[in-house]
Amino acid sequence: MNFIVVRKPTSRPTFGSPDREAIAVTITGIIIILSCTRTGRPEMTDPMEHSLIVSPELEVISLSLGTIVSWTHSKQKLNNVTEFIFWSLSQNTEVEEVCFMVFSFFYMVILLGNFLIMLTVCHRNLFKMPMYFFLNFLSFADICYSSVTAPKMITDLLAENKTISYEGCMLQLFRVHFFGDTKIFILAVMAYDHYVAICKPLHYLSIMDQETCDKLLLGTWLDSFIHSIIQVALVFQFHFWGPREIDHYFCDAHPVLKLTCTDTYLVSVLVTANSRTIPLGSFIILLISYTVILVSPWKQSVKGILKALSTCGTHIAVAIIFFSPCTFMYMRPDTTFSEDKMVAVFYTIIMPMLNPLIYTLRNAEVKNARKKLWSRKVFWEANSK
User: Fold this and answer.
1) Any idea where the G-protein coupled receptors family 1 profile domain is (predicted)?
2) Which residue, among 219, 231, 215, has the nearest Cα to 272 in the 3D structure?
């Protein structure tokens, strides 16, 4: 903002009476103060552009009105904050080095374990079986979900500047919710698949045919996309003017909303409600499916119940392990705790690592397919020598 005081000859006509001059100076001052208070300091332009003559006999205040207008409009559209800074998991260098090695190992297990399940399903042509059809895409979602946060977190553990751009933060927010919701929906669909297989075995092939499986899978992607777009839209509408340090290791809705300079109570309520809808609805489906399975009339015997638990035990274990931290994070009021980062580590890294281990150890079909695949690999290597 530029002001110029210039002496003028007394022969020129005056602006008006002293009262009018005082009023004009007061109004100009108010405009300047409000502009500085609301937007910060603008860039300088031509100081003589749009000169405002307040008192020709005493002085001329030259104010670039075009600068104020363009400055205000640009700040309404753009954010002062172009990047955010993560606090990561710890500020201790030694702890960060240990975490780097541990989580690097975990991430490699996630990739290898889930790729092994996908390779097994594809190699053994198990896509025709609904259970393995959805298990394959659950492993794919696990890889994508952990890859959204784990590589950035691991590299930040040894980086001095733990930053992410504004656009990258919004993209990460979208992908976290998209792949996370996809996992939740697939777990719910797999629960329904178990219900049909156990309670309606004679109609299983007609109910869970390939067309139905494709539609259910498409529905999971579509619902996840809608939920994620809503989350990003609720956060994207705000402007970030000052604080840019996120007390987390990835961009999530509530930690980012804490950085805005406006009241976010209503939007936080909407974000929380939108976040609750997915896990709550899926949890209800899981609860109904397995309750019906366990209390079915022809499953009243202890032997029948044990058989049902043996069939669904793996999926129940995965659902409980995944939904427990999700319930802690997204089913509570709009608050943040110091434990949030540790809980987030569990469902973004630990859980995708445990999934292939649980399904591989508990599922006979996957174990047999893995053994055959491994023995064939050994046979090829022996023949090649």
Assistant:
1) 113-359
2) 231
pLDDT at 51: 38
Q: pLDDT digits over 216-234, tens only? A: 999 999 999 999 999 999 9
Is-above-0.85 flag for pTM? no
- φ/ψ of residue 221, rounded to 5: -65, -40
Alpha-carbon distances of 383 from 20, 369, 371, 377, rounded to whole Å = 101, 21, 18, 10
- Confirm if 7 and 59 have CB atoms less than 8 A apart: yes
Higher pLDDT, 212 or 123: 212
50 CB contacts (<8 Å, ≥6 apart)? 63, 64, 65, 66
Q: How far apart are CA 212 and CA 218, in angstroms?
A: 10
> On the CB side of 322, how many CA atoms lie within 13 Å of its CA?
30
Provide the 10 A C-beta neighbour count for residue 7: 10
Cα 77–Cα 79–Cα 84 angle in degrees, nearest 5: 150
Angle (deg, nearest 10), helices 210-236 and 130-156: 30
For tokens 């499916």, what's the residue?
289
Give me the domains of the chain, ranges plus CATH numbers: 18-77 (no CATH), 83-384 (1.20.1070.10)
Residues paired with residue 4 on neighbouring β-strands, in sequence order: none
d(CA 315, CA 176): 22
**In the prediction, which pLDDT does 383 show?**
57
Query: pLDDT tens-digit profile of 279-314?
Result: 778 888 888 888 887 777 555 566 666 666 666 777
